[in-house]
Amino acid sequence: MTQLKNILYSLIEPLTKPETYQSLLSNLIMIVVYVVVAWIVLRFINKGIEQFFKIQNKGKKANKKRSNTLISLIQNVVSYVVWFIVLTTILSKFGISVEGIIASAGVVGLAVGFGAQTVVKDIITGFFIIFENQFDVGDYVKINSAGTTVAEGTVKAIGLRSTRINTISGELTTLPNGSMGEITNYSVTNGESIVEIPVSVEEDIDRVEEVLTKHFEAMRSKYYLFVSNPKVVGINSITRDEIVLSISAETVPGEGFSGARILRKEIHKLFKDNGIKVPQPVMVQYDSNQQNKA
């Protein structure tokens, strides 16, 4: 009983001393100071990293996306380092031996490692994605996992553990790097827009091709995404009512679908302005009485 009283007294007795609260308040103030200073330092470092790459790549358009990727990665790593330093400093203020924690990290890491395999896999995959240049910030990609598309859109950020992708419909998807299987990057090589345009069989195809070719020459200067003038590839098919023309255009990387939409819009307007006919459905009236007479 006396031993229990001594234990309770040793726990309660420091709480009755003003020095305890003064020390606690002092430590809390120091924690706030450390956090604020770390936040300010990170802001300056991040700005410095951005300015460094901006100066390095001044006038080099081809390196901008790669620079954005490396900026994101370096800022991510610096953030981990700074907050690790802040954490160890705070622990030392409370009398917790950081050296002891680091020394025991091997034993704890072995125990936790089995449960953290996914995190380790994400980080390792993140390094391969970045250093193999599989895709950069700003690229349009499609990510498959186990044969199923899990995300398709523009890459917004690449981190050590995860990647953020802004999908076509506007959602921001965060994917663990380790979950990525097949990666299709639409922004590496030039895209291609291919559209099929039906024309009435009554039209003079040579005239239609001439009108289209002349318009395509002027259209290229109107839209930045066309690398070269769109061209009429030829006739794809002929039926009783229509002739289908195939139109092809080379675009900047990742803009193949946008180019196809622009071509359809421009050709539709061009046909209306030039009176070029498109196929119309033909209605055939069936007279049962005439068949009976026959």
UniProtKB/TrEMBL annotation:
InterPro entries: LSM_dom_sf, MS_channel_1st, MscS_beta-dom_sf, MscS_channel_2nd, MscS_channel_C_sf, MscS_channel_TM-2, YbiO_bact. Residues 76-117 form the Mechanosensitive ion channel transmembrane helices 2/3 domain. Its main location: membrane. SUPFAM superfamilies: Mechanosensitive channel protein MscS (YggB), C-terminal domain (SSF82689), Mechanosensitive channel protein MscS (YggB), transmembrane region (SSF82861), Sm-like ribonucleoproteins (SSF50182). It holds the Pfam family MS_channel_2nd. It is found in: Cell membrane. GO terms for cellular component: plasma membrane. Gene3D superfamilies: 1.10.287.1260, 2.30.30.60, 3.30.70.100. The keyword Transmembrane applies. GO terms for molecular function: mechanosensitive monoatomic ion channel activity. The chain crosses the membrane at residues 24-46, 67-90, 96-116. Residues 118-187 form the Mechanosensitive ion channel MscS domain. Keywords: Cell membrane, Membrane, Transmembrane, Transmembrane helix. It is a multi-pass membrane protein. May play a role in resistance to osmotic downshock. Belongs to the MscS (TC 1.A.23) family. This is Mechanosensitive ion channel family protein. It comes from Staphylococcus gallinarum.
